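Appendix B, Record 12. Input sequence as logged:
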Amino acid sequence: MALLTIACAAQAQRRFDAAVFAGANFNQLDGDDDGGFNHIGLRAGVGTSFSLTTAADSPLRLGVELAFSQKGSTISSSFERRATLSYVEIPVMLSLSLFDSRLRLSAGVAPALLVKASVIQGGSHNTAQERNYLRFDRLPLVLTARYLFTDHWALEARWQNSFLTVCEQSASGTYRIFRDNKGVFPRTVTLGIAYNLFNR
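Logged structural output:
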């Protein structure tokens, strides 16, 4: 009985993995009349993935994360404004493992709940702008590359782009997919590190 329990636990450990991660977001808001990934925020959380087949060494996996992520923009050209959007996001991604599972490439969506919007303009809060941000960012697309350089530690790079506006109203803005979808869209590059809780 003990041997069966150990065998089942070992199989589960190979099919499932878990990691904690942290990194820096380099952000901009497409449609806010400024460019450049000059707004830096924090991204940190936990994640797990599991094999999509019964084979423990299958290269295809489904991953789910729970993360705190700061997005936004900093404008310092025509006027000073710093917008920080703090989200709790749940990325769901399909992954492909390569090179003996050292490299994992992932793609998916990362729907997010806005927990706080802060807009500092002219040294004070612009409460009208803060209230203008939507509660949910429903369709951010995400691409990730994670390289495991030891049995536990990995480097990660991530690109994320929202395809639905995160503002209720936008005087200027840009658009995604179709012209009626006009507004402001977070775009983020993340560089970070992850620690696998189990051996690869």
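Residues 2-15 form the longest helix (14 residues).
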